[in-house]
């Protein structure tokens, strides 16, 4: 392949808050170029945050959760034509470089990158050849890998503790189900509203040791279960300050909170003094531990709690995620979702914005299935 063929791309509109469909003209391809034909891609909460203006990321093409098939690769790349690969979006050595955030992402038919760049950043994880998962299932491998990273860090501090989760999106659902299944401990999933919490209770099956409540019921829910020594904050960036505050209100002395959620630019939590909340997420990058948990004192009640955070995932997390998905420990059926075409993406994303309306949609995960042909409304609702 000497030239990248013309293909369909979904870009940010000139107002930066909408998506539009465009055609990419054919262009030259260097000898070191890897070309991935996208098979499936999912919309993440960070994509919505970028479009809503809550994040300042500059990528024109969004999308960072996906699976594709290699259709061109140089011999030195370690990849073969026909390999399925998972996109691992955060550069392992330069974590400020993120596919779909600081550089163009995967909401396109063909995704291209230089082989040296791919190797240095570990952006592509080859799916085991014996994996029989459908592409729409495999798209969960990267976000599930992030959940596994979180659990790895938390279990170093509190292996069998009950887990409190503030955030009821894909990550929150998978974390609750996986923690309950793999540790045998209790998990409480906290949604913003009782209406959404009730919908979640009825929309999928849950282990017996998982409960769901809304934020207004959090204190009452925590009073009837073992103390939550582990917690995950995985709500939207807009809700992160309130979400952190609610966790600080109920976790006991010595608890560990994983900050998976990002915070508004230059956010400063008065209750925790001068600690840089968002920078704690950069202490653990792509599977490499950079610092121990940060002890902080809550000025409102005198409790000392520990904060951890992480950015990106390692190849081992994604491969472990593929094993879990292959074993049906977690599956796409566990996540209320909807499948649609690339051409339908702009309209589906528009329906998910602004964040205040997101819980009114009857799905949690929106997934592009590139094998589908556009014909009316999105389909495959589960």
Defining traits:
single chain; 382 residues; alpha/beta; Quinone Oxidoreductase, Chain A, domain 1; Rossmann fold; 2 domains; 7-stranded mixed sheet; 11 helices; 26% helix; disordered C terminus
CATH level 1 class label of the largest domain: Alpha Beta
Tell me how many strands there are.
20
The CATH topology name of the largest domain reads Quinone Oxidoreductase, Chain A, domain 1
Strand content: 15-25%
- Low-confidence segments: 375-382
Shape: globular
**Count of all domains:** 2
**CATH H-tier superfamily of the largest domain:** Medium-chain alcohol dehydrogenases, catalytic domain
The major sheet is characterized as: 7 strands, mixed
Average pLDDT works out at 91
Going by CATH, the architecture of the largest domain would be Alpha-Beta Complex
Radius of gyration: 20 Å
Percent of residues in helical segments?
A: 25-40%
Structural class: alpha/beta
Count of helical regions? 11
Quaternary organisation of the protein chains: single chain
Polypeptide structure, described:
This protein is of the alpha/beta class and 382 residues long. The chain folds into two domains: 3-139 and 336-369, Medium-chain alcohol dehydrogenases, catalytic domain (Quinone Oxidoreductase, Chain A, domain 1), CATH 3.90.180; 146-308, Rossmann fold. It is 26% helix and 24% strand. The chain has eleven helices and 20 strands. It has helices spanning 45-52, 115-121, 135-138, 141-157, 170-183, 194-203, 218-222, 240-250, 277-280, 315-326, 345-351, and strands at residues 3-4, 7-12, 19-24, 27-28, 33-42, 65-72, 84-87, 110-114, 124-126, 163-166, 187-191, 210-214, 230-233, 256-259, 284-285, 288-289, 294-297, 304-308, 337-340, 365-369. The strands form five sheets. Strands 5, 6, 7, 8, 9, 19 and 20 form a seven-stranded mixed sheet that branches. Strand 10, helix 5 (170-183) and strand 11 form a beta-alpha-beta unit.
């Amino acid at each position: 392949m000497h030239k990248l063929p013309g293909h369909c791309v979904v870009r940010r509109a000139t107002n930066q808050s909408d998506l539009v469909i465009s055609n990419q003209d054919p262009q030259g391809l260097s000898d070191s170029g890897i070309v991935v034909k996208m098979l499936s891609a999912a919309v993440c909460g960070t994509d919505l945050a970028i479009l809503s203006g809550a994040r300042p990321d500059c990528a024109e093409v969004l999308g960072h959760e996906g699976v594709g098939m290699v259709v061109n690769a140089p011999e030195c790349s370690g990849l073969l034509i026909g390999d399925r690969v998972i996109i691992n979006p955060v550069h392992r050595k330069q974590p400020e470089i993120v596919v779909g955030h600081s550089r163009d992402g995967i909401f396109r038919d063909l995704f291209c990158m230089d082989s040296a760049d791919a190797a240095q950043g570990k952006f592509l994880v080859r799916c085991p050849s014996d994996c029989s998962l459908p592409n729409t299932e495999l798209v969960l491998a990267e976000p599930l890998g992030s959940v596994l990273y979180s659990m790895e860090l938390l279990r170093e501090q509190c292996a069998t503790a009950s887990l409190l989760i503030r955030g009821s999106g894909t990550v929150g659902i998978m974390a609750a189900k996986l923690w309950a299944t793999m540790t045998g401990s209790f998990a409480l999933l906290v949604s913003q509203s009782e209406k959404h919490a009730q919908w979640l209770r009825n929309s999928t099956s849950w282990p017996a040791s998982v409960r769901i409540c809304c934020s207004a019921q959090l204190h009452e829910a925590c009073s009837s279960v073992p103390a939550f020594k582990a917690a995950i904050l995985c709500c939207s960036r807009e809700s992160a300050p309130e979400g952190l505050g609610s966790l600080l209100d109920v976790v006991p002395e010595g608890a560990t909170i994983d900050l998976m959620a990002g915070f508004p630019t230059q956010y400063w939590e008065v209750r925790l003094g001068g600690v840089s909340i968002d920078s704690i997420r950069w202490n653990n990058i792509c599977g490499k531990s950079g610092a121990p948990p940060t002890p902080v004192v809550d000025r409102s009640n005198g409790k000392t709690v520990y904060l951890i955070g992480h950015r990106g995932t390692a190849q081992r997390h994604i491969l472990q995620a593929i094993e879990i998905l292959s074993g049906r420990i977690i599956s796409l059926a566990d996540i209320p979702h909807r499948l649609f075409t690339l051409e339908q993406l702009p309209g589906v994303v528009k329906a998910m914005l602004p964040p205040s309306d997101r819980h009114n949609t009857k799905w949690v995960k929106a997934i592009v299935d590139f094998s589908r042909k556009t014909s009316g409304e999105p389909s495959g609702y589960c």
